[in-house]
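W.,

You were right to be curious about this one. When I first looked at the sequence I had no strong expectations either way, so I just let the prediction run and decided to look at it fresh. Below is the sequence, 244 residues in total, followed by the output.
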Amino acid sequence: MVAWRPATLVADRWETDSARTLALDVPGWPGHRAGQHVDLRLTAEDGYTAQRGYSVASADEGERIELTVQRVEGGEVSPHLVDVFAPGDAVEVRGPLGGWFVWDAKSPDPVVLVGGGSGVVPLMAMVRERRRVGNRALFRLLYSVRTPEDRYYRGELGAHRPGDGGVDLFVAHTRRSPQGSSRAPGRLGAAELDTHGFPAGFAPVCYVCGPTGFVEAASDALVALGHDPGRVRTERFGSGGGAG
């Protein structure tokens, strides 16, 4: 059984008006694989506890992990983490968890990443881990968000950084496109998955993460385009997340 570990918030940054990245020091953290997640537990003064699962956004770098949390209105945990949780505050973390939706950092296979809204978080961990280990596998990331303001990691994702050669980014805005964009707002469809991903003949590993409806549509489209279902890995969450 995976044990709970104490963790302390040591740094934070805003990704959007409603999403915040939390850097946690976790003494004894055993390391993680890109794509894994953790359970996070809050305990109130009266002893009441609440826990939620969050994908790890960071590469495997010692005893510090990063989580990007999107505020869910009416939620029990995320509003506290986004709006109240302050540096020096403590929580408990259990993990790493999950062994299917993970990227093999030693693999040379091309990779297609498809993220809807906050579903980009574990995919960002894969991009960062690729950079950290110096893997040269080709990555193509297709990222669906409602508006330009809803994009996570704007200062990093899509900007040139050492080790990022071979990482291509395509952003599909579903509600409002950036000024001057030639793409009208709309959902990410099969044609764009075909154009901006890798052909099925390249045998890429495909990772799709986001709200359930988004994941089902994207994974079905990839299979219809000829991708091996066994190489299409999915992770889904509820109806929120800002992809539609």
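Here's what jumped out at me. The helical segments are 78-83, 120-133, 190-196, 212-224. And, maybe more interesting for your project: The first helix runs from residue 78 to 83.

Coffee later to discuss?

I.
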